[in-house]
Specification:
Blueprint lengths: L1 H20 L10 H32 L2 H17 L1 H9 L3 H24 L5 H29 L5 H30 L1 H19 L11 H6 L1 H14 L1 H16 L2 H4 L1 H8 L4 H26 L4 H18 L3 H4 L3 H33 L5 H26 L5 H30 L1
């Protein structure tokens, strides 16, 4: 009898523990500091989405040359690749909340200053280049700081839902911002559109000032004196953690393989599908809706499917979808069929890529020690950022010898092979354990 009671009590305790571990989107409302941080990020995203259109127009309006647009784009990517890995080491020893506030204020000042210079007709191309370098360099410090603060405002059991909610809302806000950008530019002008982005940084900084975090020990002096040792220590930690290393490698490979979706989007629509800007818009809308849906439903799959199965399944779907784009050439005479094919495939890729990225981010957060999060996260982001421009250069060279369809078929096949190998490796390991 006593054994039965003990077993019953044990099962009740186990059930209570399971209840504690369960999470939902509603539970995030209780994470007040996380909500503050997320709202600050959404305000930034809204301003950036308007600025993304406005700044592109501004660069061409001032320079009148496509070469300057390419140069400014390269300058925007450069700090993410070259500065961020080293910035992450410094961030570890800083007051991260204060750093986030200061970097937002600096970006607010520089962006608002650019708006004033444009409205007073004082902007020249070199100013645009300098502005891009300054803002991107500041952002190279802001990103690892935000990554390191996240575990301090959100419990680990909420990572899955927290990541999904933040991603979904960011995409919704980005769609609203991109939709409003054209209206703001046409009604108020480029200068006002850029000024809105500047104001958004100040709004974000104001919210971040109210964050309540545990007091961090000041380590700036020690870190400054042993900077290179801390950098090497972070690299050694990354090298010794096979799971984290594999996540970083997988992210770099994914970004490289799916680069044609960005860099060859217009040639795909025109050369393969034989359509114009209307299908390009449908492409963007289908991908955005798919991405939003994928990030929202990810938590419901995460608890039922293993991370490796989720990686492999979504990766194979992305690769297969890229291969399916090549079918557009065989149905390009039927406009309805082209639209259905493009929208359906793009939607599936959007859902799959969003689920995959969410899974990668959650696993990364769970796998990295908080003491190394800024350093390793900075290296992680830099590698992921570097993959895109390098892959773009490779695609540019490949385009001289291959058609757009062949490039998509090749990239899609490589993607399928990579994730199929991941799945087969898991199956082999499971059989080995059995």
């Amino acid at each position: 009898m006593s054994n039965t009671v003990e077993k019953g009590s044990y099962h009740k305790m186990e059930n209570r523990e399971q209840e504690k571990e369960r999470a939902s989107y509603r539970d995030l409302l209780k994470q007040r500091e996380y909500i503050k941080m997320m709202v600050a990020g959404l305000i930034n995203r809204f301003g950036d989405s308007i600025d993304a259109i406005a700044f592109t127009w501004l660069v061409y309006a001032i320079t009148g040359k496509a070469s300057w647009s390419a140069l400014v784009f390269a300058a925007n990517q450069l700090p993410s690749v070259l500065v961020q890995p080293f910035a992450g080491v410094l961030v570890e020893g800083m007051d991260k909340k204060k750093l986030m506030v200061v970097t937002d204020i600096v970006r607010g000042i520089t962006t608002s200053g650019l708006a004033v210079l444009y409205l007073t007709s004082c902007v020249n191309p070199w100013m645009l280049l300098a502005f891009t370098l300054v803002n991107s360099t500041v952002e190279a410090f802001r990103l690892p700081a935000g990554l390191a603060v996240l575990p301090k405002v959100l419990e680990e059991r909420y990572y899955t839902f927290g990541t999904s909610l933040s991603t979904t809302l960011s995409m919704i806000v980005e769609m609203i911002g991109l939709g409003m950008a054209g209206v703001v530019i046409s009604v108020c002008g480029i200068g006002i559109a850029i000024a809105i982005d500047g104001i958004s940084f100040f709004g974000s900084a104001l919210i971040l000032c109210t964050l309540r975090l545990k007091k961090e020990r000041a380590q700036g002096g020690a870190l400054a004196g042993a900077y290179w040792e801390n950098l090497r220590e972070g690299l050694r930690y990354l090298k010794g953690q096979s799971v984290i290393r594999n996540l970083c490698l997988l992210t770099v490979l994914l970004n490289a393989v799916i680069t044609p979706l960005d860099s060859l989007q217009s040639p795909l629509i025109q050369e393969v599908m034989g359509q114009g800007s209307s299908l390009l818009s449908a492409f963007a809308i289908a991908f955005t809706i798919g991405s939003g849906l994928g990030s929202f439903v990810y938590p419901f799959f995460a608890g039922k499917i293993s991370a490796v199965d989720l990686f492999a399944g979504t990766g194979i779907l992305i690769g297969a979808g890229m291969c399916c784009y090549t079918l557009g050439g065989s149905v390009r005479g039927n406009v309805a069929a082209v639209y259905v094919l493009t929208i359906l495939v793009t939607f599936v890729i959007g859902v799959s890529s969003s689920v995959l990225v969410s899974a990668l981010n959650v696993q990364f957060m769970k796998s990295v020690s908080q003491d190394y999060l800024a350093r390793v996260g900075a290296i992680f982001n830099a590698g992921a950022s570097a993959a895109t421009p390098l892959a773009s250069l490779a695609l540019g060279a490949l385009a001289a010898f291959c058609s757009v369809s062949q490039i998509f078929l090749f990239s899609g096949a490589i993607c399928v092979i990579i994730f199929l190998i991941i799945y087969l490796a898991q199956v082999r390991n499971c059989r080995g354990v059995v």
